[in-house]
Specification:
By secondary structure, the chain is an alpha/beta fold. The chain contains 38 helices and 23 strands. It has a 7-stranded parallel β-sheet with strand order 3-4-2-5-6-1-7, sandwiched between helices. This is SNF2-related protein.
Length: about 950
């Protein structure tokens, strides 16, 4: 909605507009600099918020200010609980840096989230982005770009995989900021390069760059994962990995140790809880309700399930490589539970591999699109070689192989004979009831159906199209190569040709086209796991789990597509329960009752999910039950044991560490959030007021009413709500017409003269200004620019004194500039003399900067002291361990009876004492090295904080404050 930069009329560009409005050119210059100050305080965020299409919530502002606050931290970890809008928090940070013309910014996200981030940054913050993936990267290279990542006219967005592959390119760019979404993907960094190749590659490429990491789960299984994430931000934040493990991650966590760690994390980690936000009153989270639909498989369906299940339980089968057995068995079981149509194609694939004397690998199961991701989660090997292990021996066992092919062919033929699935029939039964419930709760008649199989997805589309939903369904998967999707994509491309909505990535644009069709034209979206990841479907409030994942965290991610921050309606979740399969029933009970995934207020399930160690571990445990249990009694016993373990885990909350570190509920936080809301509303109003006054100063003919501005160039607003409500253009100080107005005002000639302020024309009472009615004096406005090694900050200084020697406070002098005035030329040629009050105000700005920097220096000094203590502690541990061994040996010596034994042990003690002495020497030498390294780090921090400043005088004038009658 931003106007063209060429929209400003020729009069404005030439600076020839007359000075005849309520505000003078001097005031216009004051307002223009106020609107474009480089700062990291609430005023700066208010400017970003006013032009952002988001409803401001104080916890998001709090997080953004936290990320912007420190000039010396290498980055921060924003870890708000799920659903609180981390995208908006990061967007505010990116928008603020963009407004300061710090444009080299990188966003690393899961591949499926690239388009969503691009769209949200454009829609909410009007920030341009470019998605870098194989095709767009190649095109840039072909166009002559030496490094396609080195762009300064858009925010670069790329996936974790592509970023790691192009790590050398990333390393060559002097990034102003790198934002990493779903940053828990990096938490295994501590495992080293062999076990964390992607995280290590990115860590090496981005070392030394300012980073913002976004994740709701900084650690899940171990505190070492938290160490890994913090080390990605800075490998100098903690001491060595061994020192961290010794202090915090070995054995049970003591309250004192966790509180100590929490104190250390405070400068780098920010987390807000949903219950804090609810207590503040900013967000009313919607509820979720569940519908459970029973179904009973037909005899043929049940027979097929039993036969394939028995096959998978057979340890002697030849089709699956032993190294890949765990992963493939999991995937095939998922496909088996999905539909007979899906398992028929899978059985064909297995048969083909056996006939070719080649084993099946997980990557060949293309019907299950997330197989690679599941394999990564399980850390299951899936060797690239597809030859059968021991192929010569297998040739000799041709008879056994042929028997297995015959066996599988029988299962496949049975699957082909089954023409309808009872679960599909149950879907038809439940949809009308679910739609009615959704509409009663205020939602739209739209449903998203999730399945884990592409073949099942096709079956469901055919089923629905043939039973009352013709032309009302749309598919979303990893490829979308069906005819309907291609047509939707072509139509979308034609309608949006040449707009910022097009990313250049077919995958991202296809997903955008499908979601748009679902939102505007179709009633039912049938999505696979891969297709549905990262999409925002909050315009829909009905979700159907046609297939139910065993990992509770994956289930919550699915539901999070609709039940998320910004959802206006209560959500309905539909699940199916197989009444002939006791294991399936128990899985559903586990997810429903233990994890509370399907009922309750927004995010209630996360309290439970946060207490379990890993959804992947639960998934593997459930797979073991399916594989090993042959009868109902054993299945029930195993699920009862799993439930008991989860009960213990939830009650004991191994996440006691998580709660102590990250989930501490503090009433002061709620009070601070309420105060932040009040402060931000005030700042936003102040920003909008200053911008409107600037427009009056620059455009005397402007008509301003109800927050809308009528100019020769059109109708505009200076914040998004009135702009959107009136379908007006949006003025912003850093782009288009707004930027031209700001620049024009900043460059105005402002000669000495007299500003006659008229208190009768003020739009709101200013008691502090009113006290100076009838006074006159001198006024100076200037800019103080403070430069440090890696940033520039500015303060606008306004000082005034009266002719009788009294000095106005800085705040009152600034508020005086907001009073309508008229300008009169100077009655005398000489400039007004320099104001002592101005020099004092400049010194206060410098003193404030020095005080802030001193606080940062002390904080960094404390952190480096702890870093050095970590290093020394590890060194001393070795000495203490040897001392303990020596003491134990001496006790043993006294108990020995023979001279020979005593002599042998005495020699061993001497050897240990020599080792201890060597370790002591090494300890003291290493301490010196640590001290030198710490001094070098402190010198670097001091250099970063060392400031230089300059003062630019904008204008000197005389002033009077009058109260004329209109």
């Amino acid at each position: 909605m931003s106007p063209s930069p060429n929209a400003l009329s020729e009069d404005a560009r030439s600076g020839s507009r007359s000075e005849g409005g309520r505000y003078t050119h001097h005031q216009g210059k004051f307002f223009s600099h106020w609107l474009t100050l480089r700062s990291r305080d609430e005023s700066a965020i208010a400017r970003a918020l006013s032009v952002a299409r988001v409803d401001m919530n104080p916890h998001q502002v709090d997080a953004a200010l936290f990320a912007l606050k420190s000039p010396v931290e290498a980055g921060v970890l924003l870890a708000d609980e799920v659903g609180l809008g981390k995208t908006i928090e990061a967007g505010l940070v990116l928008a603020q840096l963009w407004a300061q013309r710090r444009r080299r910014m990188l966003l690393v996200v899961p591949a499926t989230l690239r388009k969503q981030w691009s769209q949200e940054l454009l829609d909410k913050f009007q920030l341009p982005t470019t998605i870098l993936e194989s095709r767009s990267y190649a095109e840039r290279c072909k166009a002559g770009d030496a490094n396609p990542f080195d762009v300064d006219d858009a925010i670069a967005i790329t996936s974790y995989e592509f970023a790691a592959n192009k790590a050398a390119d990333l390393a060559r760019v002097p990034w102003d900021l790198v934002v990493l979404d779903e940053a828990h993907k990096l938490r295994n960094l501590y495992k080293g390069k062999s076990d964390a190749k992607r995280a290590s590659a990115l860590n090496d490429a981005l070392r030394g760059r300012k980073k913002v990491l976004l994740t709701a789960t900084p650690f899940q299984n171990s505190l070492m994962e938290l160490y890994g994430l913090v080390s990605f931000i800075s490998d100098e934040f903690f001491g060595s990995q061994q020192a961290f493990q010794m202090q915090y991650a070995s054995g049970r966590h003591s309250e004192a140790r966790l509180n100590d760690l929490r104190h250390r994390l405070k400068p780098i980690c920010h987390r807000t809880l949903r219950r804090q936000v609810q207590a503040e009153g900013g967000i009313n989270f919607t509820k979720r309700f569940s519908i459970t639909q029973d179904f009973t498989p037909s005899d043929d369906e049940f027979e097929l399930y039993e036969q394939v299940s028995a096959y998978l339980q057979d340890p002697s089968i030849l089709a699956i490589k032993p190294a890949a057995r765990h992963l493939i068995t999991l995937v095939v079981r998922k496909i088996l539970a999905s539909s007979t149509f899906a398992i028929a194609d899978t059985l064909d694939a297995i048969i083909e591999r056996l006939q070719a004397n080649q084993a099946l690998t997980a990557r060949m199961l293309q019907d299950f699109e997330t197989v690679d991701e599941v394999g990564d989660e399980l850390e299951a090997p899936d060797p690239s070689s597809t030859d059968m292990p021991g192929s010569e021996a297998l040739q000799a066992e041709l008879f056994c192989r042929n028997l297995e092919i015959e066996r599988l062919s029988g299962y496949r033929d049975l699957a082909r004979r089954i023409q309808s699935n009872r679960k599909g029939d149950a879907l038809l039964l439940v949809l009308d009831r679910a739609f009615a419930m959704t509409e009663n709760l205020g939602g739209r008649r739209k449903a998203v159906i999730f399945t884990e199989s592409k073949r099942t997805q096709e079956y469901l589309r055919d089923l629905l199209e043939a039973n009352g939903y013709a032309g009302r369904t749309v598919l979303l998967n990893g490829s979308n190569d069906d005819a309907d999707s291609k047509a939707l994509y072509a139509d979308w491309m034609a309608r949006h040709a040449g707009t910022a909505l097009m990313s250049g990535s077919r995958t991202a644009d296809m997903k955008a086209a499908v979601v748009e069709a679902f939102r505007d034209q179709r009633d039912i979206l049938i999505a696979t796991e891969a297709g549905g990841e990262g999409i925002n479907l909050q315009f829909c409030s009905l979700l159907v789990n046609y297939d139910l994942p065993w990992n509770p965290q994956r289930v919550e991610q699915r539901i999070g597509r609709v039940h998320r921050y910004g959802q206006q309606s209560d959500v309905v979740v539909v699940n199916f329960v197989n009444r002939k399969n006791r294991a399936d029933q128990l899985v559903f009970e586990l997810l429903e009752k233990k994890f509370r995934l399907f009922d309750g207020v927004f995010g209630a399930s996360d309290d439970i999910l946060g207490s379990i160690e890993s959804g992947v571990d639960i998934e593997q445990r459930i797979l073991r039950i399916y594989q090993e249990c042959r009868d109902t009694a054993r299945i029930e016993a195993e699920f009862a044991a799993l439930q008991a373990e989860l009960d213990d885990s939830i009650a004991r909350r191994e996440s006691e560490a998580r709660r102590t570190l990250l989930e501490h509920f503090d009433e002061d936080v709620v009070r601070n959030l309420r105060s932040r809301r009040e402060g931000m509303l005030l700042r936003i109003n102040q920003y909008e007021g200053q911008f409107l006054r600037l427009i009056e100063a620059e455009c005397p003919d402007a008509r301003i009413k109800d927050a809308l501005v009528e100019l020769e160039e059109g109708r505009f607003a200076v914040s998004w709500p009135p702009a959107e409500a009136a379908n007006a253009g949006l003025l912003r100080p850093d782009a288009g017409l707004g930027a031209e107005l700001v620049q024009s005002a900043a460059q105005r000639e402002t000669p000495a003269g007299v500003l006659h302020f008229d208190y009768a024309a003020v739009d709101a009472q200013r008691a502090d200004v009113r006290e100076w009615l009838g006074a006159r004096g001198q006024l100076r406005v200037g800019i103080v620019t403070i430069d440090t090694a890696n940033e520039q900050l500015q303060s606008l200084v306004c000082s005034a004194r009266s002719d009788d020697g009294r000095v106005l406070s800085d705040e009152t002098a600034a508020r005086l500039m907001e009073v309508p005035a008229r300008y009169a030329p100077a009655r005398r040629v000489a400039d007004a003399p320099p104001l002592l009050a101005f020099e004092a105000a400049v010194q206060r700005v410098l003193d404030d900067a020095a005080e802030r920097n001193q606080a940062w220096f002390l904080q960094e000094s404390e952190r480096l002291d702890r870093w050095a203590e970590d290093q020394r502690l590890l060194l001393k541990q070795r000495v203490d361990a040897l001392d303990a061994q020596i003491r134990e040996a001496k006790r043993t010596l006294r108990q020995l009876e023979t001279l020979e034994e005593k002599a042998r042990l005495k020699r061993e003690i001497k050897r240990m004492e020599q080792q201890r002495d060597d370790a002591m020497l090494d300890f003291y030498q290493s301490r010196k090295a640590i001290d030198l390294q710490q001094d070098a780090m402190l010198d670097r921090v001091e250099a970063l904080l060392r400031i230089q400043h300059r003062v630019d005088i904008l204008f000197d004038v005389e002033w009077t404050l009058e109260h004329t009658q209109s």
